[in-house]
Design a protein that fits this description.
By secondary structure, the protein is an alpha/beta fold. The chain is globular, with a radius of gyration of 19 Å.
Amino acid sequence: MRTVRTVAELREALREAPRPLGLVPTMGAFHEGHLSLIRRAREQNETVVVSLFVNPAQFAPNEDFDAYPRDEKRDGRLAEAEGVDFLFAPSVDEVYPPDHQTYVVMEGIATILEAEQRGTSHFKGVITVVTKLFNMVGPDRAYFGQKDAQQVLVIRKLVRDLNFPVEIVVCPTIREPDGLALSSRNVYLSTPERERATALSRSLNAADEAVASGESDPGRVLAVARAVLDEAGIEPEYLELRSLEDLSPVERVNGSTLLAVAARVGNARLIDNAILGGT
């Protein structure tokens, strides 16, 4: 595996790289969720690039940019063990030079849910850095996790709207045995907080069981999920049923309904989701 730090070096290295080429964009602090994306990319491509960049543009001023976990040496060892060809680990100035003034903005689905909690600058930062990575790497495929369901829809729309020749591959959420979705921010949780945090996945499971039993009324499905969070003393930032296609509100729950939740547990802001009524 080769580590590269500049766009010029990356482009030169990839000039004769075998195709297809797969990109796994990450902010590091690898866990099994990241590794599952890398493994899928390795299975489907001749060349695999993993980007390692904590993107300041997607953090609000009051968020955890400075505290976000970073361990490039560990991440590099894990990436190499999975057969990654190139680890792209640029500096902030390489991605956003001091005179950088261009950003990519999306309307509609990039202005709700996460954007309402974190500010519209969040997805502005995500969309801009993904656009830059697509232009820097020129991948045939790019890999993202279902845990960030809204982000997946935003990036798919970005690809369609701006005609990027990139296939977006979405991989399942990876969970701990007790159901907690893997996240780099889980390291912020104390032992008691980590136990409380399992209420997020349990609330999704309770809602899914209600739908499987025949419930399709959104209000009643949400009440089932909310009861699990209430029992754990968790007040969600949002707990909403939305269309899996465009995040529009739903009148009935069916196999294309997304239940999305975000909540703070201690110092950790956690998100999770489930597709209800699916096969």
